[in-house]
Input
Amino acid sequence: MYNFLKMPTNLPPEYYAIEERYKAAQTPEEQVELLEELISTIPKHKGTDHLRADLRRRLSKLKERGAQQKKTGKVVSPYIVDKEGAGQMALIGFANVGKSTLVAELTNAAPEVSPHPFTTWQPTPGMMALENIQVQVIDTPPIDREFVEPEFYVMLRRADLILLMVDLEADALTQMNESIRLLVENRVIPAHLADAHPEPGNRVVPLLVLGNKFDDESADENYHIFCELAGPGTPCLPVSAVTKRNIEEMKRRIFETLDVIRIYAKPFGEDPDLSAPFVLARGSTVEQFALQLHRDFYENLKTARVWGSADFDGQQVSREYVLQDGDVVELKI
Output
């Protein structure tokens, strides 16, 4: 469902009638035709400049997608982002809060960074180093635009963690509340609010609120005021996309939230490669590690030895042994 926000109050009645038909459109061809009608009904004055520009961008993307569909025979949505690395983070927030700056600083992605609002118009994924593993961070279009595409929330439902960035120098509380309201309306429920929204069909996703522009000690008071207003139980962390203040703490929180462990494979009779861990869900067993390593190990495993969490280095353990972060495992078939 499209969310049309902050609409000008002087739009003609036919605009809203066409808008309802647009929301119900089933094909890209219908959407293109109705968007063209919508644009034609909007009065041309300063108050509607942003709305007309936004609809024109949407129209352009639909036409490009239609041309691609005719060429390839299938629709490819930019919001379908294949997961890479140890986890997928979606970075969301209002325009100009610093999302693209953070992604550009910490990943190999190259989102367009500009002081002007609404620079990012489609998801831009990048890989961020998290100790000796990689996680995927997706820069996303602003959540406060006139309308948000349905695929946006489909992408968020697939994420392992949502990073909600707010600007501590602006009205951070309103930014957070409005963003969370849109998430809940679209059945993407922040984990700390799960008990209040038990409805079937909801998707619960961990969320961390990043208070950006925490550049130096002068920003401490702004953050403390925001925390008090946000209320207890809201997972918050102040960061600076420019000075990188608190970025290492952010990475630690991300790793904790992902709830994964790093396991190092030790080839029989050789030293382990400590630069290339396997990533498993916390609580995984030797058997599950064997399956991830190779099906031959899973099917033909004879012995397993563990260094790290075992009672002594090289202890022989069973298939059901629960591994811990940093364990070194030697499997023999």
Q: What stands out?
A: The domain at 88-258 is CATH 3.40.50.300 (Rossmann fold). The chain has three domains: 13-72, 88-258, 260-332. The chain is about 35% helix and 20% strand.
